[in-house]
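A sample follows:
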Amino acid sequence: SFKTDVSSWFSFSPIISRIISQASSVVPSGGFVYKTWLVYDHPATFISGFQLEFKAARQFVYTHVDNTGSLNAQIIHQISNRVRSKLAFQTQQQKFVNWRGDAEFKGDDFTATVTVGNPDMVVGSGIVIAHYLQSITPSLALGGELV
């Protein structure tokens, strides 16, 4: 098998790659069948607004599309030095599979996060998770999670 990865990394934004790989497998079914397939992946990353006061990029977008049409994407937005939002979603062969949204707040000695996953108001499904982490000492933090 082989793999080729060509990336453009000229600056922080955008970073685009082309990955071509060939894979094979041997499957027993009354004899041996040798299967070979070619895989094409297209990951792309966009980083914007790097600022020293946040010690991170303000916006970060990562996408990955393969040759079957499946998509993985993640978007992170640093709203302020204390508030960050994140959205992640996934499709599989052009069919929507799942998504998740996070909102995070960082205090001086605590962090609180709310996560919403796969909400569907019609069916009444999905999950909401709340996290809380409190610093007790500089080297010890305790927290909890509510589902």
